[in-house]
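quick one: zinc ion bound model?
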Amino acid sequence: MNPKPPHRMTRQRQVILEELTKLTCHPTAEDLHRIVRERLPRISIATVYRNLELLSEQGQVWKMSVGGAQRRFDGNTVNHYHIRCSVCGRVDDVHMEVMASLEETAKHSSGYQVMSHTVEFTGICPDCAGKS
Ligand SMILES: [Zn+2]
Ligand SMILES: [Zn+2]
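yep, here:
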């Protein structure tokens, strides 16, 4: 019995999930790859992508549909709102109440069964605003 290959997969996924959960910066797969490599020096970017896809299918991470070139991931799967800097592309959480009433309104006006909603604000972050 050789438990190595399946265990290694699980371990990689675990480390990816652990590191993502620690971060509040909504990293891209590339960002996360850089961080995870400190613990798993041989992990490839393809492995990080594959595991992130898997984790998001399982609902353990949130694959964000933010504007901008790169897909970002969030270890916090409880619904919350985001704000994206239109200058540097940074994404932060917005600490405000999630408006469940939006889903009722959307349901009534669309006839859909509404499962969820996401909100992304756009703005200029304090760092970028300070530079101008
Ligand atoms: Zn910025
Ligand atoms: Zn977030």
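Residues 79-132 form a domain with the Dna Ligase; domain 1 fold (CATH 3.30.1490.190).
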